[in-house]
Amino acid sequence: MTRDLDNAFRIRPLVLDGALGTELEGRGVNTSGKSWTARGLVSNADLIFRVHKEYLYEGADILTANTFRTNPRALKGTGLDAEALTKKAVRIARKARRMKDRGQQVAGSIAPVEDCFSPELVPASDAALVEEHRVMARWLDEARVDIILIETMSTLREALCALQAAKEESEKYVWVSIVPKDGETMLDGTPLDYAVQRLKEGGAHLVSLNCAPVSTILSALPVFSKAAKKAGVWFGCYPNVSEKLPDGSWNLHASDNRRMANCALDWMKAGAVVVGSCCHSTPRTTNMIEVKRNLFYLHMEDVGIAWDDDEDLPEYMLW
62 has which bridge partners? Predict the structure, then answer.
């Protein structure tokens, strides 16, 4: 059953799960091509279930179904059935939730129709974008997700088109997460404060930043949190463990799990109600964030717990 998230947020922040795509890659799943992790729904469904279950047992309040690349455009020419895989992905996440169902939510992911880091590739027609995202929103609603998570949006224009489609197709909570270029703008150059205001006006229940390194997410905190509070919308973040280098390669260990958890704490102190992790994070990352969230909650309850009561952790917990 879908929880009243507004009331849940007033009690304590919720923990979003971590990376699925890079976690599957790390466990040997072939994620090459535009379909990325969608093929794993055919070849490795049991592994996807296990990863969801691990995130659940490590403290995630929200599981994100493996629908990031099940849209028709991504699967065009692959012979894969986009609708069937989208709904299968949600069934797997819902099945995992039943292993420890204490009010956890299942989110269905809607990603950009083209590459997440290439604003110039976003189709020019707003009407066409709305229709493409409408299909995904309808399938996710029919599959009975609790939240439609529009994420990793590099342009405000596509984010608004996806938001419009989701609001027209579903009465579920709709969250929108955008990718920051720096502390003040999205990848397409849109000011973050303006983006927050427009997304609130479009009906977003929560706005977030994701798929950027911790340093960028932290630098954006003052502007983003102020804008969200001014607009009257819930907000959150889920940064990458990894960081893309100037030569195009990736530093897969740019941030250890303690730094990820401390980033989440800084955002919670500023008012964030959803914290999690994105690319190259693991279930252990989620556990560290959950520990910090629990300390934050106890601190709110004034029971004498310090922010750093998790500092004496063994080295193996850091990665």
Answer: 16, 105
E strand or H helix at 155: none
- SS3 of 254, please? coil
β-pairing, 234-240 vs 274-275, is: parallel
From CA 188, how far away is CA 165, in angstroms rounded? Answer: 21
Spell out the CATH class of 5-318.
Answer: alpha beta
Residues 6+ apart with CB under 8 A from 284: 58, 257, 317, 319
Q: 281-302: per-residue pLDDT in tens?
A: 999 999 999 999 999 998 876 5
**For 174-214, what is each residue's pLDDT tens digit?**
999 999 999 999 999 999 999 999 999 999 999 999 999 99
Closest listed residue to residue 118, CA positions, set 248, 26, 279, 251: 248
Residue among 201, 200, 184 nearest 192 (CA) = 184
Q: What DSSP string runs through 21-63? A: HHHHHHTT----STTGGGGHHHH-HHHHHHHHHHHHHTT-SEE
**Domain locations in the chain as residue ranges:** 5-318
